[in-house]
Specification:
Helix content is 29%, strand content 32%. It is of the alpha+beta class. The protein folds into four domains: 3-123 and 132-147, Jelly Rolls; 157-262, Jelly Rolls (Sandwich), CATH 2.60.120.380; 315-460, Sandwich (Jelly Rolls), CATH 2.60.120; 505-700, Rhopdopsin 7-helix transmembrane proteins (Up-down Bundle). Strands 7, 22, 23, 24, 26, 29 and 31 form a seven-stranded mixed β-sheet that branches. The longest helix is centred in the last third of the chain and has 25 residues, at 620-644. The chain crosses the membrane at residues 510-534, 595-614, 620-639, 655-676, 682-701. Its main location: membrane.
């Protein structure tokens, strides 16, 4: 046999500590057909700095869709299907780099996904620039060994195949056509090259993770052995591997026969489907009575010509796939939302999810039983959602599984008329919904019965849009799009439905009040600035107080939220006001000439606005203007001290009662902001930051100029007549 090796690689990604699905780094590969060996090369590395410690990296694997993971052990939404992903752990200890290999024999062809992440995030809010996080990098490469000339089994034809040696198994494949109800594989006349009875092991199907449903049989002696599969995957190549179990290094010849059991589908005629589609989209035109009449006659004939349930193994209902948006699809039944369900053969609906871009959302299937349509009180409508092929024997075993897929069961009855199923990240394939009426005393009891079930099926990026305490985010890895929920206010889980650590409404209101009302501490600073004739500084403090208040009112994670304008605008104005407030305060303390001070005010504000637009959360956007303003202030103070030949400011009361308390408050505020804030204590530590910064401003503002008199409101309010009298006397004197 001719083997071809191929190599696929993707760029390395920087890993993150896990708090939601967006922190997991996703790798998307496509395994080609006829692959007999798949090898993953996983490379993990870390930085060399002292901040880098021992770390455990978790790597998840899944076929067909991104892995469904739950590192935080949170609850999933009700009615959601959860199957644990296959994962391994890679430890980075003393070694800077770790290389791990993962082998998969006879992997399924199609999409494969790898997700990697670090342990749970600590929740500490780090200011960008104050600390340097350790970089942990991860890269996944894929090697495949593909058989270029894999033999093909023709259905119904006996072919002789040879296993060269126990170390070289035989790989063959057979194509499963549509509407195949069963597959039977027979092995005959198994002989070694020494004309002795042989022993072989036959493996049907490919490996899929996290669950694999390969079927294995062992044939010994010169007897015919067979294996039957119910509901094999439609319109796919099925791999068959034959291994020799002989001890000697001898070849083995065996005859193989593959045969299928056909399933005859029964459905309404194509003209009826086209007529229903045309009427549902355009409607009947007024004044066309002849057309309406002919349509009604044709519809009736179509119903009479439809296949009888007794002569078919399934009843197919036409479904239209309607693409709404990215990872958003709605399925519409042409014959109405209600489908007839009987006990003789299952009713099957095709839900197409094979575009390659549908596996990043959630498939939702909802059933509603019309109780008046069932004349048997104990009858139950059993349903099964499966991929690749439908389940055709629900009435016999109630088993919701096909040859290589474990489906998701549903049931509705008169006592429980509603049922819902949520498939998280459904794998790329054709999905089928099978429904059948089942009676407790046997099928003879409900042969003549029929139930009406309303079916709603759709694909959505996030189920229920992540609820009121979550945000649905569209994530991207190269050209592949998938969605995840980012939860807030202590809520967690896949769809933000886990309230184990959720904040109460009272706690949310308290957090909002603390973060907003703490900005009122700027009022003393504004009053001091106005009293000392620092009107420009007072206007800056007023601007900061206003936008900080409404930014934090809009930034809240819970329901106590009020946004007076766009969130990004509020955030930018809050950051700008905070940095400019520090800038103008330090410049005001420097006591430079007015013209120079106002030029620095304007120039510094423009530069701060530019830097915040480049990187809003960078620490140097705040530290840079502060340090530059401090340099100007120290230089000005030294100049004043040298000129006056004594320390500046000269008053010890100014130092003891104003400067030292103000500087102390400022340093405490910076320490709280940079080193103490976490996600849990943010609402009160950040409120303390507001109080300390605003209080420090009130202490640090210098006294007013000596030549300016204080505001004398009483004199200014009672001097109007005196001013008028003086003006008249002056005019009279001039005249």
């Amino acid at each position: 046999s001719l083997y071809v090796s191929e190599y696929f690689s993707q760029s390395a990604q920087k890993l993150s500590f896990y708090s939601w699905y967006g922190n997991a780094k996703l790798f998307h590969f496509r395994v080609p057909e006829d692959t007999v060996l798949l090898r993953w090369l996983l490379q993990a590395s870390r930085g060399k700095g002292p901040e880098c410690t021992n770390m455990e990296i978790t790597v998840h694997f899944r076929y067909g869709a991104p892995p469904v993971i739950n590192p935080l052990s949170t609850r999933f939404p009700a009615n959601a299907t959860v199957r644990p992903s296959y994962n391994i752990s890679i430890t980075l200890s003393s070694a800077v780099q770790n290389t791990t290999f993962v082998n998969v024999t006879t992997p399924a062809a199609g999409d494969w996904f790898i997700a990697a992440h670090l342990p749970e995030a600590a929740g500490r809010i780090e200011v960008k620039g104050f600390s340097t996080p350790c970089p942990y990098m991860f890269q996944a490469d894929m090697f495949v060994l593909r058989l270029a000339d894999m033999p093909v089994l023709e259905p119904g034809a006996v072919t002789t195949q040879t296993v060269a040696s126990p170390a070289k198994p035989l790989h063959v494949k057979v194509f499963v056509p549509k509407h195949a109800a069963g597959l039977r594989l027979e092995l005959r006349n198994c002989l070694t090259s020494e004309q002795k009875a042989c022993a072989v092991r036959v493996v049907l199907g490919s490996i899929t993770l996290p669950q694999s449903f390969q079927r294995i049989i062992t044939c010994t002696g010169n007897v015919t052995c067979s294996l039957t599969l119910d509901s094999p995957p439609w319109e796919k190549w099925l791999q068959i591997m034959v291994e020799s179990l002989s001890a000697a290094n001898a070849s083995v010849s065996v005859e193989m026969l593959a045969s299928f059991t056909a399933c005859r589908p029964g459905s309404t005629s194509s003209f009826l489907n086209f007529s229903s589609l045309n009427q549902s989209q355009t409607g009947a035109r007024p004044g066309s009575a002849g057309a309406v009449g002919s349509s009604a006659v044709s519809t009736g004939e179509a119903w009479r010509n439809a296949s009888s349930p007794r002569s078919s193994c399934l009843q197919s209902q036409p479904v239209v796939r309607e693409d709404l948006d990215v990872v958003s699809v709605r399925y519409r039944l042409l014959n109405g939302p209600s489908v007839p369900v009987n006990s003789l053969s299952p009713t099957v609906l095709l839900l197409s999810l094979n575009t390659g871009m549908d596996s990043g959302g959630s498939l939702v299937v909802s059933l509603l039983l019309n109780k008046t349509s069932v004349n048997l009180a104990n009858a139950t409508v059993v349903a099964c959602v499966s991929a690749a092929s439908p389940v055709l024997s629900l009435n016999a075993t109630w088993n919701c599984s096909t040859a290589f897929f474990q489906g998701y069961p549903l049931s509705v009855s008169t006592s429980s008329a509603e049922a819902m199923l949520i498939v998280l990240y459904p794998q790329t394939d054709d999905w089928f919904l099978s429904l059948q009426l089942v009676c407790p005393r046997g099928q003879g009891e409900c042969n003549a019965a029929e139930a009406k079930v309303t079916v709603f099926a759709y694909l959505t990026p996030c189920f229920n849009d992540c609820g009121p305490y979550g945000q649905c985010s569209l994530l991207r890895r190269h050209g592949y799009l998938y969605a995840g929920c980012s939860c807030k206010a202590g809520w967690g889980g896949w769809s933000c439905t886990d309230d184990t650590k959720a904040q109460s409404v009272g706690a949310q209101n308290l957090a909002t009040l603390l973060l907003t009302l703490s900005n009122l501490m700027f009022l003393p600073a504004i009053a001091v600035a106005v009293y000392r004739y620092y009107l420009v500084e007072a206007s800056v403090y007023t601007y900061t107080m206003f936008f900080s208040t409404f930014y934090h009112a809009c930034d809240q994670p819970g329901i106590a939220v009020m946004c007076i304008m766009d969130y990004d605008t509020l955030q930018y104005c809050d950051f700008l006001g905070s940095v400019v407030s520090i800038w103008v305060t330090i410049l005001c303390m420097s006591r430079v000439k007015k013209i120079l001070k106002y030029v620095l005010f304007i120039l510094g504000t423009l530069l701060i606005a530019m830097s915040l637009q480049l990187d809003r959360r960078g620490v140097w956007n705040m530290m840079g203007p502060c340090l530059f303003a401090l340099v100007i202030m120290i230089a000005a103070w030294v100049y004043h001290g040298v000129k006056r030949k004594h320390c500046y400011p000269s008053s010890w009361k100014r130092w003891v009662f104003y400067l030292l308390p103000g500087i102390t408050l400022a340093f405490i505020a910076i320490s709280v902001y940079a080193f103490m804030e976490t996600n849990e204590n943010y609402y009160y530590t950040h409120s303390i930051w507001h109080v300390l910064v605003a209080s420090s401003v009130a202490f640090l503002l210098p006294p007013r100029d000596k030549h300016k008199k204080p505001w004398a409101w009483s004199q200014k309010l009672t001097c109007r007549y005196q001013i008028c009298q003086n003006d008249r006397e002056e005019l009279y004197a001039v005249t």
